[in-house]
Specification:
This protein is mostly helical and about 160 residues long. The chain contains six helices and three strands. The chain has a single domain (about 15-150), classed as Orthogonal Bundle (Arc Repressor Mutant, subunit A), CATH 1.10.10.10.
Length: about 160
């Protein structure tokens, strides 16, 4: 196997080449899209993902944003604070749970998404067009199989011995 962009010539003992390849590919894609967004805006990739989540889901809680975006809680909190200070999102106390807040896009946030969307679309289309339609179907099918294999993989492993009392 040649080094290539993902540099998979050496896989440490006990490591999964599939896991390494997908992790490195994911980091590369996030990094490149993040750089594109950083060149054109101050919101960055986490902010973009939050804004897209709010645009598609409407007014939602921080927990719902974490579930939707799969961004860690701390990063979500920092990004929400930045986006609110920048006037791109608004928040209000949740009627059902006064400890929680609901977030939504402002008109300024909607405008920012519309401004960035053409560049993001060009980037994403270029990535998707790297594969033929048949290759894309195969890739997605393989990704689902890998996800299914990874999810319960640890359940069959021996359990850690209980600590002596």
């Amino acid at each position: 196997m040649s080094a290539g962009i993902l540099d998979l010539d050496f896989v440490p003992p006990g490591a999964s080449i599939v896991s390494m390849a997908t992790h490195r590919l994911s980091r590369l894609l996030r990094s490149e899209l993040g750089e594109l967004l950083n060149q054109q805006s101050e919101i960055g990739l986490p902010g973009w993902r939050i804004c897209i989540g709010l645009a598609s889901r409407g007014e939602i809680t921080q927990k719902e944003l974490v579930d939707y975006t799969k961004i860690e809680q701390g990063q979500i909190s920092r990004s929400l604070a930045y986006l609110e200070d920048a006037g791109l999102i608004a928040s209000r106390r949740c009627d059902e749970d006064r400890r929680s807040r609901r977030f939504s896009l402002t008109a300024k946030g909607q405008d920012e998404i519309q401004r960035l969307l053409p560049s993001v679309t060009v980037y994403c289309d270029a990535v998707d067009q790297a594969l033929t339609e048949e290759e894309l179907k195969l890739f997605l099918s393989m990704a689902e199989r890998i996800a299914a294999a990874a999810t319960p993989a640890y359940e069959d492993l021996p359990k850690k011995a209980a600590e002596p009392a």
